[in-house]
């Protein structure tokens, strides 16, 4: 039984028994992973991670721009662009992983058009830096269950922003769980636009645990991605409910042909 797509372990939440993040990376390699990802980087052991990546031959698929700053609030734009610049520089020794950008929260009194235009302007400035450095930026829609006033909670809007910026170094991160929380139909929101998606993350409904523990139809998820032509990796961004060996076996079963 083999996975349809290469799988990336979110070592932020997985292999916790191994200890430090670099030790988790080595544990993921021992479990058969070639890809891994995590969230913020400023509190992480960057040098130790670089060594672990070199030792294991693993590759980081993604991490987050840190600190997180708004793309819709003009007052935070300079800080947001600076965060992108500093993240690019700080993570160069990690193999230039893709960098995840969230939108920030809605601004009181700002129209939808103003939100959109501000987001495009911020993302275009960030994409210029990414193009210069040869790094991919991933724009991630979240959900209103976790973030009630988050601006970007729609896959369609996220794709509209990516299209409006028009940079080859800005793509969408499609998170199956966030999308399901928002009640989206995966096939409908991605149809005809899968070329704008560079990474997919998964977790089961309702509680963001391993695929196979909840209510999502994983055969449909797999078939939809295949039908639409997705060709990237799948990030296992979930909270394990089982010991890692059992958790991974369940996830692999859910995501395999």
Can you give me a brief rundown of this structure?
The chain is of the alpha/beta class and 257 residues long. It is 40% helix and 14% strand.
Write the layout of secondary structure elements.
Blueprint: E1 7-10, H1 21-30, E2 35-37, H2 46-56, E3 59-64, H3 77-90, E4 98-101, H4 112-133, E5 137-139, H5 155-165, E6 170-175, H6 176-181, H7 186-190, E7 197-202, H8 218-228, E8 234-236, H9 244-255
Parallel strand pairs: 1-2, 1-8, 2-3, 3-4, 4-5, 5-6, 6-7, 7-8
Helix pairs in contact: 1-2, 3-4, 4-5
Q: What percent of residues adopt helix (DSSP H or I)?
A: 25-40%
Structural class: alpha/beta
Number of strands: 8
Shape: globular
Q: Spans with pLDDT under 50 lasting ≥5 residues?
A: none
Order of helices and strands: EHEHEHEHEHEHHEHEH
Identify the strand order in the major beta sheet: 1-2-3-4-5-6-7-8
Instruction: Kindly report the average pLDDT value.
Output: 97
Terminal residue distance: 7 Å
């Amino acid at each position: 039984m083999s996975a349809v797509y290469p799988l990336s372990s979110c070592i932020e939440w997985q292999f916790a028994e191994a200890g430090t993040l670099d030790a988790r990376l080595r544990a993921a390699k021992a479990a058969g992973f070639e890809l891994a990802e995590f969230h913020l980087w400023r509190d992480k052991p960057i040098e130790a991670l670089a060594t672990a990546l070199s030792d294991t031959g693993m590759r980081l698929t993604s991490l987050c721009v840190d600190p997180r700053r708004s793309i819709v609030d003009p007052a935070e734009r300079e800080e947001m662009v600076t965060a992108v610049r500093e993240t690019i520089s700080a993570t160069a020794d990690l193999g230039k992983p893709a960098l995840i950008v969230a939108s920030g929260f809605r601004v009181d009194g700002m129209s939808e058009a103003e939100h959109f235009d501000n987001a495009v302007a911020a993302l275009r400035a960030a994409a210029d830096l990414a193009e210069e450095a040869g790094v991919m930026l991933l724009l991630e829609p979240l959900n209103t269950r976790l973030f009630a006033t988050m601006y970007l909670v729609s896959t369609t809007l996220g794709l509209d922003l990516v299209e409006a910026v028009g940079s080859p170094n800005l793509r969408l991160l499609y998170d199956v769980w966030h999308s399901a929380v928002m009640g989206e139909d995966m096939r409908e929101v991605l149809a005809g636009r899968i070329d704008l998606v560079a990474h997919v993350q998964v977790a089961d409904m309702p509680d963001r645990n391993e695929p196979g523990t909840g209510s999502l139809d994983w055969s449909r998820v797999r078939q939809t991605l295949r039908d639409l032509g997705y060709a990237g990796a799948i990030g296992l961004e979930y909270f394990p409910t089982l010991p890692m060996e059992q958790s991974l076996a369940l996830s692999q079963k859910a995501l395999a042909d």
